[in-house]
Structure formats: C-alpha cells, structure tokens
Amino acid sequence: MERYRHDQTAWVTLGMCVVMTVFFYGIHKLAAGGGTTKNFVITIVIMALVAVLFFRMETRVTDEALTLRLGIGLLRKTVRMDAIASVTRVLIPWHSIGIKIIHGGWIWSASGRKALELRLTNGRRLIVGTDDPDALYRALGKPETVNEEDRRRGRDENRRRRHRTRGRMVPDLLAGYGARAFHAFRRAAGVLRARGKPPDRSRRRAGSPL
Predict the structure, then answer these.
(1) pTM
(2) C or N: which end of the chain has fewer Cβ atoms within 10 Å?
C-alpha cells in the first residue's frame, strides 16, 4: 500500500545546465577561428543528458520500502522499511544535489537544504533531500533521533556561552575590586593627612584664661 508520493523539480540542476550550455557555447565561439558546430552539439548533448538524469526526484513510500527515482528513473534506490532504524531532520549544503557520497552513506537530493537522515540497521546512513520533510517523516513512521553532529554543535554552543559569561564576569570582578581598592586608598590617605596636621593652637589660646 502506498503511503506517500512526492515529486520535486531540480531547478538548480536545470539552471546549471542552461548556464553551462551558454558558457561553453561562448568558449567555442571565442576559440581560434570560432567554435565548430560539432563541439556545440556535443555540449548540448551532455547538458541534455544531465538534465534528463537529474531534472526531478520522486520519493515514494509504501508499506514495504522507500523508493527514490531521479530523472526518468534510470537512477533509483530502494530501502526496505525494516532496514530503517531512525530518522533525523537535517540541513544539507545547497550544492548537495543529485547523488553524492558522504562519510558512511549517500545523499540523494533534487534541490534545497531540507532533508531527512535515515539511520539504517547496518550502520549506514541515507540522506534524502526533500521540500516536504514533515509529510515524509510521518509517512516513514520511524522514531526521530538527534544527530551526533547536532549534539556536538549544542555542546560547543554551551561551551562558548560559558566562556562568554566568564569573560563578562572577569572585567566586572576586576572593576569591583578596583573600586574597592580605590576607596580604601582614599580613606587611608585621609587618615594619614589628618594625623600629619599640626594642632590647632588658635583654639587653645582662645580658650585659655587671660
């Protein structure tokens, strides 16, 4: 039974194909004597092949498996549902489009940064790019876990916050101690000045008998 089906157009890939076609056409035209028609046709064929293979990605979830199909379907990947241990919402670089090898697994994505990271029972991982992560997550029906990288980022952020707090405390403590030392110095200076003054003889003469 089908739970979920979603098509996402690879606008970044299509745009890159157009830009690269114009770029190579310009190179051929600016070459010595002008570019040949044969070179331009080869460029068109290569870009058309890339577009056909990666112009979209279909994500399909059934009771038995998750199936990913790129382009017209020549590139596809199937993962059985019982092989998926957990799912994590992640963000991937915008240039991670198509199929990409990563540490411990693969990325399959059409475009965008939103993705779901599938942790498989064999220890591998599969990152599925999608512009509809919530619906895909519900269709998979697997428990969500926190990525180790996210945990490390959280610990680093907490450490930076503690350092910032300590950095603010040190100047405050120094300022407090400095103010106290300054006031103590003023009081000590006042006492020394009072002790060093000569006695007021005018008052004694005024109070003495004639």
Answers:
(1) 0.64
(2) C
Encode pLDDT of 6-35 as tens digits. 999 999 899 988 888 888 777 777 765 555
- Count of H-run helices and E-run strands, the chain: 5, 9
In whole angstroms, give the CA distance from residue 202 to residue 135: 98
**Structure tokens, 115:** 């993705």
Q: Structural domain boundaries of the chain?
A: 2-145, 151-195
| Residues 6 or more apart in contact with residue 57 via CB below 8 angstroms | 7, 8, 10, 68, 69, 70, 108, 109, 110, 129
Task: Look up residue 135 and give its two tokens.
Answer: 């619906």
Query: What are the structure tokens assigned to 200, written together?
Result: 């007021």
* Residue 123, helix vs strand vs coil: coil
